[in-house]
Specification:
This protein is an alpha/beta fold and 188 residues long. It has helices at 19-29, 59-67, 86-89, 104-113, 127-137, 142-156, 171-186, and strands at 8-12, 34-35, 39-40, 55-56, 71-77, 80-85, 98-101, 118-123, 164-167. The strands form two sheets. A five-stranded parallel β-sheet has the order 2-7-1-8-9, with helices on both faces. Helix 1 packs across helix 7 (171-186) and helix 5 runs antiparallel to helix 6. The two termini are 14 Å apart. It binds adenosine-5'-diphosphate and guanosine-5'-monophosphate (5GP).
């Protein structure tokens, strides 16, 4: 019998790299993995549900919760604020490993508070592919696309600070790699 420990996994990478897609696929095969629901000040996209995809907060409510110390981490990402609530993390690591899908600034802040967190970077095969994926997803205005692509260049420069990197080219291969990476760290 091999020993496994519950881990706090932080998954980040540029918008459009495929984080959401990969995490959903991995959780189909590992339903025991917990996923935190972040808070954000951005508006819901069509189909997004409050409390499921995000906790959608007004600017005032977000500020209030920052002041009361409710966030483990938060960051300004693109035009809005996003953050992980302490209540989404505390006690849950006793039940199993947990995934935080957050931006690069947030990931590095989590590492400061939890040095034992495992940081995994999801990268696209190229910036051209990233642009194509964002375009096909059809969720961004031209301005938002431009901002996300500019930010991606800075984020890609931080990839070597992560514990593991996965290139999301072929979806099934990347899913397998992510599953193997989680498994490897849970056995440490
Ligand atoms: P993120 O969560 O990183 O912003 P998404 O998971 O929303 O990215 O993926 C962005 C778009 O790219 C989605 O439309 C998704 O279906 C598509 N996508 C994700 N992974 C792949 C892949 N390996 N090959 C082709 N398209 C992909
Ligand atoms: P989107 O608007 O596409 O849902 O998310 C935009 C960005 O915000 C993504 O890079 C996503 O990882 C990041 N993000 C989502 N939730 C959090 C969070 O709780 N904290 C931080 N720091 N970033 C987050």
């Amino acid at each position: 019998m091999s020993l496994r420990t519950n881990k706090l996994f932080v998954i980040s990478g540029p918008s459009g790299a495929g984080k959401g897609t990969l995490v959903a696929r991995v959780r189909e095969r590992r339903p025991d993995l917990g996923l935190t629901v972040s808070a954000t000040t951005r508006a819901p996209r069509p189909g997004e549900v409050d409390g499921v995809n995000y906790h959608f907060l007004s600017d005032e409510e977000f500020t209030r919760r920052v002041e009361t110390g409710d966030f483990l981490e938060w960051a300004q990402v693109f035009d809005h604020r996003y953050g992980t609530l302490v209540s989404e993390v505390e006690h849950r690591l006793e039940e199993g490993s947990l995934i935080l899908e957050i931006d690069v600034q947030g990931a590095l802040n989590v590492r400061e508070r939890f040095p034992e967190a495992v940081l995994i970077f999801i990268e696209p095969p190229s910036l051209e592919v990233l642009e194509e994926r964002l375009r096909n997803r059809g969720t961004e205005s031209p301005e938002s696309m431009e901002l996300r692509l500019q930010t991606a260049r800075h984020e890609l420069a931080c990839a070597d600070r992560y514990d593991a990197r996965i290139v999301n080219d072929d979806l099934e291969t990347a899913t397998r790699e992510l599953l193997d990476t989680l498994d490897r760290y849970e056995r440490i």
